[in-house]
Amino acid sequence: MTAWTAHDTTLVCCCAAALFCIVVLIAWVRLTPFLAILVAALGFGLAAGMPMQAVLRAFEAGAGSLLGEIGLILALGAMLGGVLMESGAAQRLVEALLRPVATRPRLLPAALVTAAMLVGLPLFFEVGLVILLPVLFELVRRTKLPVVSIAVPVLAGLTALHALLPPHPGPLIAVSTLHADLGTTMALGFLVAVPAAVLAGPVYAVLLRRLPSMRTLALPAAPFVEGHAPVPPASPARHPGLGASLLVMLMPAALMLGRSAAETLLPPGGAFGQALVAIGSPVMALLLALVTAIVLLGWGLGRDRATMGRTLSGALPPLAVLLLTIGAGGGLKGVLLEAGIGHTVARVADASGMPWFLLAWLVAVALRQATGSATVATSATAGLLAPLLASGHATTVQGALVALAIGSGSVFFCHVNDAGFWMVNQFFRLSLKQTVLMWSMLQTIVSVWGLAATAGLWWALG
Predict the structure, then answer these.
(1) Contacting residues for 211 by C-beta, under 8 A, at least 6 apart
(2) What does the pLDDT look like over 152-173, one tens digit per residue?
(3) HSE-up of 426 (CA within 13 Å, CB side)?
(4) What is the model's pTM?
(5) Residue 304: inside a domain, yes or no?
(6) Within a domain: residue 255?
(7) Is residue 160 part of a domain?
(8) Total domain count, the chain
(9) Which helix (H) or strand (E) holds 305?
(10) Residue 134 structural domain
(11) H helix and E strand count, the chain
(12) Model pLDDT for residues 231-283, shown as the tens digit of each residue
């Protein structure tokens, strides 16, 4: 490893200034993250001595590369979520899971975590929460349990999957940028996510119930805020079957894990193995699940082609802001790497002796606290760490664990600059202190457990 140079110092200072610029533009000027990141990336490139044309080319290439890999996956995932939400399949599954334990308070938290994680597999966090809220509030009324005993397990299950498992945007960005193995990341992600959801859910709910301000938390009279109203339930004649609902929701994860198993266990060149690899790619897995959902949960329930077309089209516009932010994060990564920041980060890691997963977690935590965006934190951190892993010849397991460490760091103590903070605040009519206790601390538990579990797996398997 070469010695630290004056150019490295310049790059570090310029990078810090660019990140500070992003924070100011988002938090104070109130620009959208896309514009804030674009302005900061251009400023960084010019300050680092790059010609303007080189900066623009690097930004365009970085944005195009990341969106080319992820844009299709997110679009298919959003349409799949739209069908699951409109058909009532997700709610059907939740009700089937919770009905047997609705009168058994001791089993209810575990069932809620399971339901939230199943619903969260194919759905974005916000969609999953909106689907689960009507069930959650009905359970509070029926069981007379404290709100936190039911709400916290649901939030923990959704958060753990959102932070740690593809095809959610954050983990998917990390896997794509780091060139980590998707199946390995998913398998290890399950090992990390399930205990994280239990600790941040049922276990933490027990502690919260002991606090007077949380124990007496009342059920809101109007649990939904404008813009987040639940989808009206389907009529009894159009209820989806439990088997069809479960098949569609588990299909993407099962196919992607099948691909990893085929690559690991089956001899190369075999027809069966090649077929599993082909249908287990994220795009094909989600496409097959979407087609199955259209057939079983759309046409099979009597919905006509026009209705299904509106459902699929209506799921895409909300992706615009997310895709622009992801593209901007990829563009920032491209400019940073073109300027040589990857070599600088490698020298920092080498000099500090810090394990890659710990460096990844710390950088993601810092960026999330500053920007309030898990997407920005994930894309920027993965972009900074990618050259380090490539030059260090990271193993398959190490690449997956670094991706999980980034996902864990991206949800550390989400506070007032986080959109999810205000969703929870409004849905449950909480004070700021109550929101910090229910949401910020819950996410911190997921984050810290993610780091601890990643460290254990790193030393055991890496």
Answers:
(1) 437
(2) 999 999 999 999 998 788 898 8
(3) 14
(4) 0.80
(5) no
(6) no
(7) yes
(8) 1
(9) helix 305-314
(10) 6-76+105-234+318-461
(11) 23, 0
(12) 444 443 467 888 998 899 889 888 988 888 888 788 888 889 899 989 988 88
